[in-house]
Write a structure and sequence with these properties.
By secondary structure, the chain is an alpha+beta fold. It is 22% helix and 37% strand. It contains two helices and five strands. It has a five-stranded mixed beta sheet with strand order 1-2-5-4-3.
């Protein structure tokens, strides 16, 4: 609301796997996908593979993942390359964009 994106945003307060199933069913595509799965159930690479396989991200889109800094994600998942990685205490942020496979 503060940023003025209410009309062009969707927020799912359910686990990420269920949210992806709902999005796939609706055949939606996004410019930004934020993944913040529970820290004890880190399946980020699998979720990104599903986003890729189902074509949920626009060509210029970004996937931003919050995860435990103990979780080591690959530099590339399918055609998405990690463009940035930052650590903030016990958490880390990985940002993926389209790249060359």
């Amino acid at each position: 609301e503060t940023c003025g994106f209410t009309e062009c945003s969707e927020l799912y307060k359910i686990d990420s796997e269920r949210a992806l199933k709902a999005l796939i069913k609706r055949e939606l595509r996004f410019g930004l996908i934020l993944l913040d799965p529970p820290y004890k159930q880190q399946k980020i690479a699998e979720l990104i593979e599903k986003i890729h396989n189902e074509g949920l991200l626009d060509d210029e889109g970004i996937i931003l993942c919050e995860h435990s800094r103990d979780v080591k994600l690959p530099d590339q998942i399918e055609t998405f390359k990690r463009e940035r990685y930052e650590e903030y205490g016990a958490i880390a942020i990985s940002i993926y964009k389209w790249g060359n496979a």
